[in-house]
Amino acid sequence: MNVSQLPPNAEGQHAGSARPREASSGREAEAAHLAELMTLCSRGHEEAFTELYDLTSQRIYGIILRVLRSPDHAAEVTQEVYVEVWRQSARYSPGRGSVIAWMTTMAHRRAVDRVRSVSSEMARDERYAFHSGDREIDEVWDGVEQRLDIERVRKGMASLTAIQREALTLAYFGGYTQSQVAQLLKLPLGTVKTRIRDGLIGLRDALGVEA
Amino acid sequence: MSEIHGAVGAYVVNALDPDELEEFEAHLAVCPTCRQEVVEFGETAAELSLLASASPPPAALRGSILSAISEVRPLPPEPPVETAPSAPTGNGSQTITADLRHAVDELALRRQQRRTRVLSVLVAAVVAAAVALGGVVYTLVQSRQAQVAQQAAETELLTAPDVQTYTATMKDGGQISFVVSRSLDRALFIGKDLPAVGSDRTYQLWTLEGERAIPDNVVAGGGDRQEFFRETLSGVTGLAVSIEAAGGAQQPTPSTIQTVTPLSS
Fold first, then answer.
1. Rg (CA), chain B
2. Closest chain A residue to the Cα of B77, Cα to Cα
3. Do A207 and B51 touch (CB under 8 A)?
């Protein structure tokens, strides 16, 4: 897809910035920048929050939507997450991991909590469920570096065993509990638990080696 | 130890079932190795989330969020935590130790979300006591402190050393309590036997700063409810409840104000 066809905020301010081409130092610079923005947020700088939103919202909304499947619910939960990020900004510290990891964790947790609290009546939007696929990423995701990052993660996932990958995918993107994953995969609970952890270890190592 | 340790992956992807979640969180509080692994896996999961970035959020959401945060005050930093003498050095472990309080706070919040049913029993007991005793809730809470020490933000609030409970009867019926802790900077609304207000109307909470009323969370009518105030308490001189159209209002409608409770500073 041509960049000119992209919706306006797919082109975040970072897209054209002169970050180093080397992937890992680019990520480090971006991580450091997000941490600075978080510090400014804690002092009440709304412009810093706006930039933080512009730099991260596609990722945060993306994971929430993937888990929830319903754009309406996803928008609500995204708002909750960002208000909480703002509220808690003084309480973020690097010891808890990077800003993006901290935010993603919060987003995923709230999405999963929402799925489980309303699952019976809410109905994840099935139209979305059946039409959503990784191919969408290629169509709208912007920027060479992001593409490379996604490619790295894809390769990392491809390096896992099929069961590790499937267990991790159902748990993380599907929002299923490990018992539900065990039922879906017809595997003992203990096996699923181990595969999820092994999958994360494998992915961590694969990403670490390439970085 | 090894068995519970193995749950760290499922924990990070939020896949633990409630019982095991509780068990693992208790373990996490005492296991630096698992905390380290939670941080590392958190980074890995964040990268994994890249695969879900399907499309940008709706443009309207941006405006909605930016206007929402302009009405929310960021919490103050937490006081520094003394680092445990045995903290291992290097590789971020020190900061992880220092962050334990954070972790525990966050865990408490999660438990609060997941355990409202359990808590409602406790809270109902507290409300009964608060209503009966006109706010002398502390002794009751204290006597339960040991058994509830591990529970949730509500419990944390109810057991805060400076907790104060204000009770009132609302204009159109229903007993309410505000449980307030200045040190935690939070207030909880507890309503008992709230009259139903229909699906097109809602109870709305307000924080008062002098003459100014700041809209806070809304609470459905009918039965027993509890809801944290969204706002922190700095500068807040009182709390109020009104009945507004569904979705809430920016200013309280004078004729529907149910109670106005001044807070001691």
1. 21
2. A90
3. no
Q: Is B176 strand, coil or helix? A: strand
What is the DSSP pairing of strand B201-209 with strand B238-245?
antiparallel
Question: ipTM beyond 0.90?
Answer: no
Contact A181 B99 (CB under 8 A): no
CA distances from B20 to B26, B46, B148, B182 (A): 10, 23, 18, 33
Contact call for A101 and B45, based on CB within 8 A: yes
**Does the beta carbon of B69 lie under 8 angstroms from any beta carbon of chain A?**
yes
Q: What 3-state class would DSSP assign to B168?
A: strand
Which residue, among B151, B138, B162, B158, has the nearest Cα to B228 in the 3D structure? B158
Nearest to B77 among A91, A137, A207 (CB): A91
Going by C-alpha positions, the residue among A140, A50, A12, A175 that lies closest to residue B53 is A140
First to last CA, chain B: 47
Helix (H, G, I), strand (E, B) or coil at A65: helix
Contacts for B118 with CB less than 8 Å, ≥ 6 apart = B151
Contact B179, B158 (CB under 8 A): yes
Note whether A200 contacts B9, CB cutoff 8 Å.
Answer: yes
pLDDT tens per residue, chain B (265 residues)?
457 889 999 999 999 998 899 999 989 888 999 999 999 999 999 999 999 866 789 999 999 999 999 989 899 887 765 444 443 444 443 344 444 445 545 555 555 555 544 555 555 555 555 555 444 444 444 434 433 443 567 777 777 778 888 888 888 888 888 888 888 888 988 888 888 888 888 999 999 988 888 999 988 888 888 888 988 888 899 999 999 988 888 888 888 888 888 888 7
Interface of B with A in 121-150 (CB under 8 A): none
Could you say which of A74, A100, A207 has the minimum Cβ distance to residue B44?
A207
Q: From the candidates A134, A184, A204, A209, which should be mutated to test the interface with B, based on the most B CB atoms within 10 A?
A: A204
Cβ atoms of B46 and A34 within 8 Å: the answer is no
Helix (H) or strand (E) holding B225: strand B223-228
